[in-house]
Write a structure and sequence with these properties.
The complex is a heterodimer. By secondary structure, chain A is an alpha/beta fold. Chain A folds into 2 domains: 5-76 and 285-358, Luciferase, domain 3 (Roll), CATH 2.30.38.10; 118-270, Rossmann fold. Chain A is 29% helix and 22% strand. Chain A starts with a helix and ends in a 27-residue tail after the last strand. Chain B contains 17 helices and 16 strands. The chains are: A alpha/beta, B alpha/beta.
Chain lengths: 385, 420
């Protein structure tokens, strides 16, 4: 039987308000499995193409006994245009886009009001566990223009907005029109640094934006902020910094130097627009964890079965939060290693994992790997058999 | 690293090695007949647990038989060519001479390709410098080691160099290209584009094989014959898909199926699924690149999400995938044992849309006249090989519409002065 929207909302809320990282793993798995099955039924009833995909899946999701058996979508499926949705167009309030590199098609996910609200609650629930629930001044290392989009939000804007719930006041410390290279708004920055000098301040920015447009120019100019109580969160991946040979340790040291804080106050988290509302900060053991309303499965590329502890594989992210788009079960293009299935010394229960890298581009494949075709419509051809 | 495979780190070393190989080939002439004699012994010696485990070795053994090679030489160079002698042509006489040193850039996915490529140039009397992809070093070494153990093997070995270097080392790619008199290039689009642009000498002959893709087609008559024939066609198709993990230019990426052939697609899907399951049982995959797994998962999802009328069958593993739909347009190939099955009213419809990219058309056609008509149409639409299903990978000359020996020899014409 398909759950009504109200019933689903109630069940999602129950997991959203459950202890974020302390559910016993088997209880967590059972509760999440039951909810995901209802969400899949809900999605199948709203989207005939998804229904066909679920029907083709080798295991009937209604009879699945583990989350790993449920039908997942590859992350590339979210590049569809128009985006995959489960709600009427008039219900969509935002469309989030991923930060695709030049030439790539970004993923796009449609958010309605309930999903958007859950996204914020999810981020707050996770981040609180790492930085505390207290509201505080919020320094955004980005431009106000990044947040200016009305319906369409980029990944940067979505991440900034996701943490806004922690803010008593928000200030963007870069300036520059969209498309132009941003630069530090130094008067603005120095003003807030003076005002917030002794406060606990939340700082957020995309990893490469923080480095390229904040740390590097401020270090060159010898600017030191003396904000020793900041907590700096950053996300967006390391790809662009790897090209500049900036390691995570060098990054944290550089950020700490500019803010005048301990580099340990710099916290990297992984997140993706297709998995809205779930972020994966590193715990003090250097591992990532999943909250009660989500799961991560690391699959062996050869069999697609979950790997053993210590092994690496393709990351699948699972989330109970979205109901406006089918982002419940998403196979990513990232490789991670499972450190433990339970028992991380940080005390958080369930899987502890580490991201290893993006799936490398396939090495040059065989002579059947073509890049160009020149198919023409048959109308211009004449074939006489 | 096997002894025969030499790691290069400087362009000068490669150029010196190339010069020595060329000198060997020019110093001692070997006729195609002599080369065939040694190659046949080599083929017979290819046995043992390690060698038997190399994909494609049974085919390589057949390829190296005298019967296979002699007929190819005779077809391309003539009877006299087999003996390395002149043949009369009117007032002139003609004879094949080697180019000198032929560089080989085989694809990284076919274990026996370095040997197949090399054997063609050796038959032309050339020396060979093979840049072996990093994934094939062990297999290439094992197979060439066997050549050292057969009588006369050293005659060929002294004119074979196997080079290993990172493919990003453009300086070494340049050095190798500058050192050769001919090149046989095999591989995917990216690799071929890169190697074609290397600075070969102006006189060098360059033969490119791939990138291409291949297609299967089945008509109503072949399908409606009887149950045994149906299963047989499905098995043949599965075998063609499985070999080389569907990464070869001769691998079928899609099957065009005449609508009248099946009526209800369900029975066809069931039988083809069984054939794929059998093949998987016999030849399970040992490794896969994570990017290939991602591509397979994406192909399954997008196929069904793009069009609600489509169907698909696949296991929970990435082992194989069948995507069922309609239409004469060729979908983008996924490889990794992912076959699109497309219903069409008339097999000429998809053939009419072929561009020069289709190498092989594997046919299951019940009627000889119809098969001939399809072959005619396909030939005009750029297809180079039209073969029955189950034989799509049988390597032979011509390949990609090109001879295999003749491009690496010079046909020297001698017109004697009239002394009467």
């Amino acid at each position: 039987m398909i759950a009504s929207a109200e019933q689903l909302e109630e069940q999602i809320e129950a997991l959203l308000t459950a202890p974020t990282f302390s559910l016993e793993p088997s209880e967590h798995a059972q509760r999440l499995l039951a909810l995901l099955q209802r969400e899949l039924a809900h999605a199948a009833a709203r989207n005939p193409r998804l229904r066909e995909y679920f029907n083709a899946w080798p295991i009937d999701y209604r009879a699945a006994t583990t989350i790993a058996d449920l039908p997942y979508l590859p992350v590339g499926a979210f590049k569809a245009n128009p985006p995959l949705t489960l709600v009427a167009p008039e219900q969509i309030i935002h469309t989030l886009s991923s930060s695709a590199t030049t030439g790539q098609t970004p993923s796009r996910v449609a958010l309605d009001t309930p999903t958007s609200r859950r996204m914020v609650k999810g981020v707050v629930s996770i981040a609180s566990d790492f930085i505390g629930a207290k509201r505080r001044p919020y320094l955004v290392i980005d431009t106000p223009e990044t947040l200016a989009g009305l319906g369409d939000l980029g990944a940067r804007a979505a991440a900034i907005q996701g943490l806004r719930a922690f803010a008593t006041e928000m200030v963007c410390c870069l300036r520059g029109a969209t498309g132009a290279e941003p630069e530090v708004d130094e008067p603005q920055l120095l003003d807030v640094a003076a005002r917030w000098r002794d406060s606990e301040v939340l700082v957020y920015g995309f990893t490469y934006v923080i480095w390229q447009h904040f740390v590097v120019p401020l270090r060159e100019r010898g600017v030191r902020l003396a904000m020793r109580n900041v907590r700096i969160l950053h996300s967006g991946g390391w790809k662009r910094l790897q090209a500049q040979a900036v390691t995570p340790a060098a990054f944290a040291a550089g950020v700490g130097q500019v803010f005048g804080c301990d580099p340990a106050r710099v916290l990297d988290f992984y997140g993706m627009v297709e998995n809205v509302g779930v972020i994966y900060p590193d715990c003090e053991q250097g591992n990532k964890h999943v909250p009660a309303f989500a799961a991560v499965i690391v699959r062996d590329p050869l069999t697609l079965r979950p790997v053993e502890e210590g092994q690496q594989g393709l990351v699948q992210v699972c989330s109970a939060l979205p109901t406006s788009f089918p982002g419940f079960l998403v196979l990513t293009d990232d490789i991670a290693q499972v450190v433990h299935y339970d028992g991380c010394r940080c005390g958080r229960r369930g899987i502890a994992f580490r991201f290893v890298r993006r799936v490398p581009q396939a090495e040059m494949r065989g002579c059947g790997n073509i890049e160009t075709t020149r198919q023409r419509p048959p109308a211009v051809l004449s074939v006489h058999a | 690293m096997p002894e025969i495979v030499r790691q290069f780190s400087h362009g000068r070393e490669l150029a010196d090695a190339a010069e020595r190989l060329r000198a060997q080939a020019l110093a001692r002439e070997l006729s195609p007949a002599q080369v065939i004699e040694i190659l046949e012994r080599w083929g017979e010696s290819l046995r043992g647990t390690e060698v038997d485990a190399i994909p494609g070795v049974p085919f390589l053994k057949i390829w190296l038989r005298r019967g296979t090679l002699e007929s190819m030489v005779v077809r391309e160079l003539g009877e006299e060519g087999l003996r390395g002698s002149w043949r009369e042509e009117g007032a002139a006489r003609l004879r094949a001479f080697p180019l000198g040193l032929v560089g080989h850039w085989p694809a990284g996915n076919i274990e026996i390709q370095p040997l197949l490529s090399m054997s063609c140039a050796l038959l032309g009397g050339n020396a060979c410098l093979v840049r072996v992809p990093s994934g094939l070093i062990r297999e290439t070494g094992l197979l060439i080691d066997k050549l050292a153990q057969v009588p006369g093997g050293n005659l060929l070995l002294e004119r074979i160099g196997v080079a290993s270097y990172e493919h990003e080392r453009t300086d070494l790619q340049f050095a190798m290209a500058e050192s050769v008199d001919g090149a046989m290039i095999w591989g995917g689009a990216e690799a071929v584009k890169e190697i074609r642009s290397l600075p070969f000498p102006d006189w060098a002959r360059v033969a490119v094989f791939g990138p291409r893709l291949s297609v299967a087609a089945m008509d109503g008559e072949s399908w409606s014959r009887d149950s045994i024939a149906r299963d047989d066609w499905c098995r043949r198709l599965a075998r063609d898909v499985w070999q080389f993990d569907q990464q070869a230019c001769s691998s079928p990426q899609m099957l065009f199926l005449e609508r009248s052939a099946v009526g209800d697609i369900a029975e066809f899907a069931r039988r083809l699924t069984e054939a794929f399951e059998e093949e998987q049982e016999l030849h399970p995959r040992r490794t896969i690149h994570a990017a290939q797994t991602s591509a397979i998962c994406l192909a399954r999802a997008t196929w069904l999400l793009d069009d609600a009328t489509r169907r698909a069958v696949f296991p929970a593993t990435p082992d194989w995938t069948l995507l069922f739909g309609t239409g004469a347009t060729m979908p983008t190939p996924t490889q990794g044992r992912t076959l699109s099955v497309l219903l069409v009213d008339d097999l000429l419809e998809p053939i009419a849309r072929f561009d020069g990219m289709v190498q092989t058309l594997g046919l299951a056609i019940g009627n000889r006249a119809k098969e001939a008509a399809l072959a005619e149409a396909a030939g005009r639409k750029g297809v180079d090989r039209i073969v029955p299903l189950g034989r799509m990978h049988v390597f032979g000359s011509p390949w990609d519409g090109t001879d295999l020996i003749r491009p690496m020899v010079r046909m020297v014409r001698h017109v004697a002065a009239n002394r009467d």
